[in-house]
Batch of 2 targets.
Target 1
Amino acid sequence: MRIDIVSLFPEYFEPLHLSLVGKARRDHIFDIHVHDLRQWGVGPHRQMDDTPYGGGPGMVMSADVWGTALDAVHRLGTQAGNKPLLVIPTPSGVLFNQSLATSWTTQTHLVFACGRYEGIDSRVAMYYSSQPDWAGVHEVSLGDYVLAGGEVAVMAMTEAVTRLMPGVLGNSTSAADDSFSLPGGRVEGSVFTKPPIWRDLEVPAPLISGNHALIAKWRAADSIRRTHVNRPDLMRDLP
Ligand code: ADE
């Protein structure tokens, strides 16, 4: 997979050289290329925004600048028949979740367009969703809150997607036991390590019993308990 990220603040993505994602990049499981949007800005000041039609506060990023940027990034990633999927982070998009992350792992080329200010002229999403040499457009929100721009959302989405790609997690770690991948999409239960007693708090007995069936039963029950307490919205999906 090739991932291109276009942003006014490329430095935001330096941490993608670290840890699991950094190692997977060095292992050539996927490539990440970060581009400064400013290079496609217009005029001596490399302008890339303008006032919104209809009035209102703030500035809107111009379709012209994004069109030039996205066409250029499309060309960079063109290998036989690869069609990029364009992802535009925005608080007004569909909610990002584990199943969307999983569906992106089979794409050959992901392009993330990070908006700032009041967002990107809506014709950009309209245009690229109708282009046959693109795999489509997803406008996606990280959650029900407003960030200062798309960068932090793209960091989160990139990590969520890439850790699911074959070879990124070691053999001993499986994404199948992750929250939202468990049956019914429930969250993971509590975890413990040594010592068995810490500040008078004991590790639940089943976990130190050595009985695998008992351990699995305790974990399933604890995961349902936690889902009930922390994520009652997910309970209706449980079998
Ligand atoms: N940009 C600003 N807020 C955002 C959010 N919640 N999700 C994705 N992109 C955003």
Target 2
Amino acid sequence: MVDQYIIPSGVEDPDVIAAMRHVPRHRFVPDTYSVSAYIDGPLPIGHSQTISQPSLVASMTEVLKLKKTDKVLEIGTGSGYQAAILAELVDKVLTIEIVEPLARQAEQTLAELGYKNVRVRTGDGYLGWPEEAPFDAIIVTAAPDHVPQPLFDQLAIGGRLILPVGRGVQTLELYHRTAEGYQRKALTLVRFVPLVRPENK
Ligand code: SAH
């Protein structure tokens, strides 16, 4: 998968490439899809949700320029695959999933694979995880129609936030928090599932 799809897609960071080689993606998809686990596409994981395309997982991870000592927040745990990739690269991963059975399944898969530096929580990721803030990086894998203010607030100075923003086709946006404010960069167009809010708040 890495030689056929990830490297040709332009990913260069050797640590990200090593993580993509190491994490067994077939363990994060339902058995019926395990034959397709190493093809570069999204796959259904139940509850109308999908595991993201591996080349997108790799490129979103790469632009965050993660360090071994980083503490990272992920919104939209899904299968737990992106969390596992992050766990290979940083000190601590906190991940929030709104669909409880997906959160439980992801937690189990991550535990079976021996990841001890990931915590999974069921809840509304729009609100972030204030008790654990600040975060060196935040990655959102479901699309809100605007950047959630709590995520801006929970980003460390020097921190990076990547997220798809919009309805339908979304813009993948990267923010850098500096001492003065936030620098925004639009990266590419993507299509993630929408970030849902409890009771349509
Ligand atoms: N990162 C995942 C794929 C994410 S799919 C992986 O590696 O498999 C997007 C996920 O975001 C879905 O599981 C969906 O249930 C979840 N989600 C949607 N709205 C959310 C919210 N408000 N808070 C937390 N998770 C949310």
